Amino acid sequence: MKTLKKVENSTKKQSKTSIIKASVPTLTLHDLRGIVIILLKLYTFYFSL
Asked: Residue 49 in 3-state DSSP?
């Protein structure tokens, strides 16, 4: 049972890192620009209150 849990944990860690590695390259400059625009909108909205 212990060995099974160890295997499960290692596969979970691997899948998490692979998901992160897969999602990082998809963050293009266009996405970053969109995030910056959203942050600026929130910032201006916050100070307009």
From this structure: coil
Q: Which residue has the tokens 């692979």?
A: 18
Q: Measure the CA angle with vertex 29, ends 26 and 33; round to 5°.
A: 120
Share of the chain above pLDDT 70, in %: 45
**The residue type at 23:** S
Angle at 31 between CA 25 and CA 38, to 5 degrees: 145
**HSE of 12 in the Cβ direction (CA atoms, 13 Å)?**
6
The amino acid at 7: V
0.70 exceeded by the pTM? Answer: no
